[in-house]
Write a structure and sequence with these properties.
The protein has 383 residues and is α/β, with parallel strands linked by helices. Helix content is 36%, strand content 17%. The strands form three sheets. The protein has an eight-stranded mixed sheet with strand order 5-6-4-1-7-9-10-8, sandwiched between helices. The chain has a five-stranded mixed sheet with strand order 12-11-13-14-15. A hairpin with a 5-residue loop joins strand 13 and strand 14. Helix 2 packs across helix 4. The protein is globular, with a radius of gyration of 22 Å.
Length: 383
Amino acid sequence: MGQGRQLTGPASRRALGKVERLVVKVGSGLISSPTTGLLPDRIGALAEEIAGLVKDGKEVVLVSSGAIAAGMARLGLSRRPRSIPEKQAAAAVGQCALMWHYEQAFARSGIRVAQVLLTQEDISARPRYLNARNTFLVLLGFGVLPVVNENDTVAVDEIKVGDNDNLAALVAHLIDADLLVLLTDVDGLYTGDPRREPGARPVPTVEVVSEDIQRFVWDAHGGVSVGGMSTKLEAAQKATSSGIPMVIASGREAGTLRRVLRGEPVGTYFVPRGDRLTARKRWIAFAAPPQGRLTVDAGARSALVERGKSLLPSGVVDVEGEFHAGEVVSLSEAAGKEFARGLTNYDAGELRKIRGAKTRALEEILGYKSFDEVIHRDNLVLL
């Protein structure tokens, strides 16, 4: 596949629309050093730039890494901790320092900040997701700037988002953001690592995060960074699939955020899909990890994708995992490729009994019939 419309577009195309609310993510490498910890001057410059946007009437949520890096410096650690308890201890020590620096920096512009620490459970559990959303909206309504980080002090692998790029995309979903900006130490996506490959070219615009684009991925190998370009592409998929544009840009250049908002060709712009998913469908697609997998036949896939139908028992070929009614499951075609997610009306045991069956036979098989559909169209999202 050649480089063209599917890969990149012209650098001048920045159809952002009216941006009133945005999420800005900052990585550890921008505001900290592996040897000295947090860098107050960098944090101050970032706060000053964001404060300018707030004074212009923008609502901004800042997702910031740096707690573990700050904790490493305060604890005198020369290498990033490897065990979970050590990481949690460093995060606990460093998060206090991180928030103190942000509070001092934003106070110079008269802006109050609030700490919001999240885990995957806070996002995947629907009631907690809605509670978090309400908290964000109330804080923004009060003119407070939320500073978000993963709750590394308590998070273990089972409840971790894993990196702040993906967390930022989930927060963008959560608050119905108009734009997601990932500030990093390079000025966008390249066809290779520009620090190692002199011939690497910048990619100004990405229409679709295709396999061709994913081949460009290189990852950071810094001492304090977890997320690399691969997690930024994952974040782009989450954001743009939900109708939210995203930009990867350099956080080392002054005025980057204003230039992005003016639509200038800064960094790499990821084009959003035309139809913006509802908040509920964004949660189904990206916030709640699938608890099982349903393989469907070609006829069912065609009905779902091309005709907008619901999934019926007759189209289910196989059921994987153990899950309850009302949980999110993944839908795959026979070849194994996932193409949709949805809320199932039946649990795994029931679906194993009724897979391939006609709707009229459900009551005879189960002794009852709760729903005609396995997944109703209103609770299904095509990926």
